[in-house]
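Exercise 3.2. Students should predict the tertiary structure of the chain below and write it as structure tokens, then compare their answer with the key that follows.

Predict this chain's 3D structure.
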Amino acid sequence: MDGAAFDYIIVGAGSAGCVLAERLSASGRHRVLVIEAGGSDRRFYVQMPLGYGKLFHDPAVNWLYAAEPDPGLAGNRDHWPRGKILGGSSSINAMVWIRGHASDYDDWQAAAGPGWGGQAVLAAYRAIEDNEAGGDDWRGRGGPLFISANRRDLHPLVGAFLAAAEAAGLARNADFNGARQEGAGIYQMTIRKARRNSAARAFLRPAMKRPNLTVLTDAQVTRVLFEGRRAVGVEYRRKGVSGRIRADSEVILSAGAVASPQLLMLSGIGPAAHLREHGIEVVADAPRVGQNLCDHQGLNYTWAMTVPTYNDILRPWWGKVLSGTKYLLTGTGPLAKSINHAGGFFRTAPDLPRPNMQLYFQAFSTLIPRVGERPLLTPDPFSGMSIGLSNCRPTSRGAITLKSADPFTHPRIVANAYSTDHDVAEMLLAVKFLRRIAAQAPIRSLIAEELRPGPEVQGDEDLIADFRARSGTVYHPSCTVRMGRDAATSALDPDLRVRGVTGLRVCDASVFPTLIGGNTNAPSILVGWIGAERILEGAR
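Answer key:
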């Protein structure tokens, strides 16, 4: 591979990178290389939907980043899992398919032009999707990515949750990706035939049959190579051996909101003074690279229940055997789904123009931790239920910076969670709404007691202290190499080209102008889809 040349080099086989690989190779005219630091996605716990709990601390598939101790999180150092595998984080995530609120793309249009606005985005999503619920003015049918409607084999407590949310004032919503987002309902999932439908499965694997697409795994890119200010290739390390590969057209970074800014800085593109501190030659002074880190923060409230939950079947050894056998023989049961069967979106104040909080319902609880594992397959030894939430558009901003010029040293992640009064105030209102849902008749009679934070936590100061101590990322980092028309606030132009150099683009969640109100896998795939169109337009 050393010394080989391609038209396009895609760094990272994550959600956006897999889409880029499929679309850039489709015509057969372009030689495309995808270079991925991780390995194959053909692993049992990757393919089994609920297996993602086993991947939460697995270094074989996970970068295992750790944020800096955060005052906003009571000094805790948050765990940041990101996918190091074909499919990237779409191979280890919870598989919820949420596009975001329609107005989120009004925000994108304001920052980056109509090509990223609501009309263009809706057309792209409809082309991407093959929705089990069928096509309509909002949903797509016949696209490469199958989306499960998730209407079968739900836990019985889902009905009680939805009825309780409705009693608390949150209307039923049959499609969060449809005409409106607000309400409570069932989550659509990237699951197909009882297997995770990652970006690798939907986009990359079919494209790998083409002779003009090459995928190189277990190869970590260490820097982008330049001739003057033009990107001409990448340097990488694989099995202890370094190599170089040339790109005749473009290098495209799709390494994610943590690794893409790190790789830019290692390559000499970033805040000049910061690069010089680490002895890195400056190719382009780009002060916005690594800045503007946005992420959703969330936590669960947990109750002991008087009726069975998934704890009762997934905790005992016989239940594990029964669930595993059912999954293997029939493709059904709790292992065939995400733990988040249902959820919703709500406003913490009626005068807000759009929902600012997201709900997650789990007929399940994991208060008793297991070292080295997110205990989805070994829950608490009692019947438990959790309702979680996360903020949709926090105003707190963090940063990704270098700890070292060594590409194998993780960057410094400063999340700055709950660092604004706005974020604290809206989360305080939000956690009170969780208790309001639990107090409604459809579910109240099924609750034995509140376990977290517990009935003794009542006053505003205590509630704030609790959510600072127990909150953490919900794994949606973004906006660290944001695109936009204003060079003063964005590192990329609206075509995803890195300012100050040529032949180099970024295409992943780091380019979001603003954080989407919802899970970020769908908009990451969207960025890959529209980004490929921009790249191909430039090649004509």
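Discussion points: The chain has a mean pLDDT of 96. The longest strand covers residues 241-253.
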